[in-house]
């Protein structure tokens, strides 16, 4: 509890009457309020900044000589599904902190879809012990497509209202257009619950143009991270829907969007950065929010302006500017020290006035224990077999809807192709890169299996399977033949979730993700090594993708145009309905 006595001690520290916990000398302060850079000394007490460049002499228990390094606020990820990193929050800190990210705004809808409110609370329990700050965007759509998918958990209005009252919550998590434009009462009640707590509502305005964006904005949706083209970003900004410019593993939007912002001299004070979904290997190799900043600087933006997008802009948007996003008295001491303002590679990272990473890497964070029920969430029907993947059809050939993947994006196109019918069945056509894609219900509720066709994976043999499958997180599997698809699925049952590849009736490689079927309990370094091995094995099977399992995890999403796939069947995303795979036969 923050009491008057604690505040009095902080004021005494600011006045020089109380010894500081830490003083950072000889910095070049990057002021995100004035765009100035000037020499300064920073005084810290009780996790907070209490003085900047004061003339008063202050004693400190610890002094850091920054040796002329630039001091910038800790970076903020405005929207992330933490589960997609494949790591627990404890392990994730080891990877993001060295890149300067000190705050995550997480929409943990993945674990909520698997295990409901219990899974969500288990994820954020003891978050104050993490080396980064964690705020919650309360999942608004669990399930994402009610009536069109099976999930393990449900968050109704009552649960969402309860979660929004938590101090750690900052917003209602992303709402896709169908919920708002369709004026569905459950989601309107969730919006009202968030507004009642004076918290914003996050958007997911994929594919919307001006007329629908007006309705969306009128529904109090405050932001959107789904812009792919500059014109989309501009349309949203014009209507007060603040863009989060995303750079994930399979959705790479920074270069195109920020190039447009720079070329058109667009004001940036209402633009933010996020990762949304990024695998641990990509974070380790490229950076986290630091990557977004660096790419923007490389495109020609002034470094101070790019840093503001990653700090004070996000803090203001989430109404946290009194706590984070700047280096100023009264704010938490989340500070990144950079030797070169044009090279976003931190020399030292400080969170709550404590050094959490330096040139030697991040300080370790002990792994906490998770409830046993979260480690046993994959329950495939005992009757499951390769026969469940059969696509039956009449005639000699069938005209089918195909999910056609778009490189580096999660959106897809619907194309139509004629497929040969062999003895009443449609098979994958490897020569045309048309493979089978199936979803297997994994919560032990109904045993459903649905199968469609997909183009873009490039597999020449075998199959890939994943229990990470947005947002329902049933098992999704893609393959050249039914037998290998079944082998890969059964391997995930054995592992209690994860990734698997199979060929010639044998498992090629697999990685266990037992926490909700979404996350590993291994250290980050081991997960990265295993993912490199997994991806190398898939490459040998013909798939050219950099992040094949990330692409697999999104391809069935029933809220991203044009087509999705759930255990119920093929989904017309914009029509929000189940449609037939086969259009006509002859």
- The secondary structure category is alpha/beta
| Number of separate strands | 31
**Fraction of residues in H or I helices:** 25-40%
On the 0-100 scale, what is the average pLDDT? 95
Number of helices: 16
Roughly what fraction of the amino acids lie in strands? 25-35%
N- to C-terminal distance: 73 Å
Largest sheet geometry? 11 strands, mixed
Low-pLDDT ranges? none
Shape designation: elongated
- The value of Rg in angstroms is 25 Å
Which key features would you list for this structure?
586 residues; alpha/beta; eleven-stranded mixed beta sheet; nine-stranded mixed beta sheet; 16 helices; 31 strands; 27% helix; 27% strand; elongated; adenine deaminase activity; Adenine deaminase; Amidohydro-rel
Give an overview of the whole structure.
With 586 residues, the protein is of the alpha/beta class. The chain is built from 16 helices and 31 strands. The chain is elongated, with a radius of gyration of 25 Å. GO terms for molecular function: adenine deaminase activity.
List the topology elements.
Elements: H1 4-14, E1 22-30, E2 37-45, E3 48-52, E4 63-65, E5 70-73, E6 75-80, H2 89-96, E7 101-106, H3 109-124, E8 133-138, H4 157-164, E9 169-175, H5 177-181, H6 185-196, E10 200-203, H7 210-218, E11 223-224, H8 230-238, E12 242-246, H9 254-263, E13 272-274, H10 280-286, H11 289-298, H12 303-309, H13 312-317, E14 335-338, E15 348-351, E16 354-358, E17 361-362, E18 391-392, E19 397-405, E20 412-422, E21 425-426, E22 434-440, E23 449-455, E24 463-466, E25 475-479, H14 482-495, E26 498-503, E27 506-512, H15 524-540, H16 548-554, E28 563-566, E29 569-572, E30 577-579, E31 582-585
Parallel strand pairs: 1-4, 1-5, 6-7, 7-8, 8-9, 9-10, 11-12, 12-13, 19-23
Antiparallel strand pairs: 1-2, 2-3, 5-14, 14-15, 15-16, 16-17, 18-21, 19-20, 19-31, 20-21, 22-23, 22-25, 24-25, 24-26, 26-27, 28-29, 29-30
Helix pairs in contact: 4-6, 11-12
Domain Amidohydrolase-related: 71-356
Family: Belongs to the metallo-dependent hydrolases superfamily. Adenine deaminase family.
Catalytic activity: adenine + H2O + H(+) = hypoxanthine + NH4(+)
């Amino acid at each position: 509890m923050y009491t008057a006595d604690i505040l009095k001690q902080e004021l005494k520290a600011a006045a020089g009457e109380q010894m500081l916990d830490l003083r950072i000398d000889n910095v070049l302060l990057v002021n995100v309020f004035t765009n100035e850079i000037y020499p300064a000394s920073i005084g810290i007490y009780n996790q907070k900044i209490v003085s900047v460049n004061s003339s008063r002499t202050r004693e400190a228990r610890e002094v850091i000589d920054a040796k002329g390094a630039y001091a910038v606020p800790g970076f903020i990820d405005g929207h992330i599904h933490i589960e997609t990193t494949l790591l627990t929050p404890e392990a994730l800190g080891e990877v993001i902190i060295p890149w300067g990210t000190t705050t995550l705004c997480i929409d943990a809808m993945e674990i909520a879809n698997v295990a409901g409110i219990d899974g969500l609370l288990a994820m954020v329990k003891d978050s104050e012990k993490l080396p980064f700050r964690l705020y919650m965007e309360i999942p608004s759509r669990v399930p994402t497509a009610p009536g069109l998918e099976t999930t393990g958990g449900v968050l109704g209005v009552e649960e969402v209202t309860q979660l929004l009252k938590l101090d750690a919550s900052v917003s209602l998590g992303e709402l896709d257009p169908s919920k708002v434009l369709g004026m569905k009462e459950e989601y309107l009640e969730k919006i009202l619950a968030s507004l009642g707590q004076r918290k914003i509502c996050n958007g997911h305005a994929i594919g919307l143009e001006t007329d629908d964006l007006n309705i969306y904005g009128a529904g109090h949706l405050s932001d959107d991270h789904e812009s792919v083209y500059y014109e989309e970003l501009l349309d949203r900004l014009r209507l007060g829907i603040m863009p989060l410019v995303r750079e994930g593993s399979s959705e790479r939007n920074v270069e195109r969007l920020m190039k447009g912002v720079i070329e058109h001299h667009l004001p940036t004070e209402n633009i933010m950065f996020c990762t949304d979904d990024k695998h641990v290997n990509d974070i380790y190799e490229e950076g986290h929010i630091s990557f977004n900043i660096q790419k923007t600087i490389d495109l020609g933006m002034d470094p101070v302006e790019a840093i503001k997008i990653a700090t004070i802009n996000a803090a203001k948007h989430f109404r946290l500017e009194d706590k984070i996003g700047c280096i100023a008295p009264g704010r938490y001491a989340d500070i990144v020290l950079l030797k070169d303002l044009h090279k976003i590679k931190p020399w030292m990272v400080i969170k709550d006035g404590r050094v959490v990473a330096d040139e030697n890497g991040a300080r370790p964070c002990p792994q906490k224990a998770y409830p046993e029920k979260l480690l046993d969430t994959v329950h495939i029907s005992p009757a499951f077999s390769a026969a469940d993947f059969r696509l039956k059809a009449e005639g000699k050939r069938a005209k089918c809807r195909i999910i056609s993947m778009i490189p580096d994006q999660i959106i897809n196109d619907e194309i139509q192709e004629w497929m040969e019918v062999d003895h009443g069945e449609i098979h994958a056509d490897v020569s045309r890169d048309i493979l089978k894609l199936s979803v297997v219900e994994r919560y032990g509720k109904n045993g459903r299996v649905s199968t469609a066709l997909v183009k873009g994976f490039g597999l020449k043999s075998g199959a890939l399977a994943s229990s990470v499958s947005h947002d329902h997180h049933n098992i999704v599997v893609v393959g050249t033949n039914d037998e290998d698809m079944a082998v890969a699925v059964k391997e995930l049952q054995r592992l209690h979730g994860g990734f698997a590849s199979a060929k010639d009736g044998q498992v090629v490689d697999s990685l266990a993700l037992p926490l909700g079927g979404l996350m590993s309990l291994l250290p980050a370094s081991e997960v990265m090594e295993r993912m490199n091995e997994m991806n190398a094995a898939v490459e040998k099977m013909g798939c050219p993708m950099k992040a094949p399992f990330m692409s697999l995890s999104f391809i069935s999403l029933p809220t991203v145009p044009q087509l999705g796939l759930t255990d119920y069947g093929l989904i017309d995303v914009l029509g929000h309905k189940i449609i037939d795979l086969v259009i006509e036969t002859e």
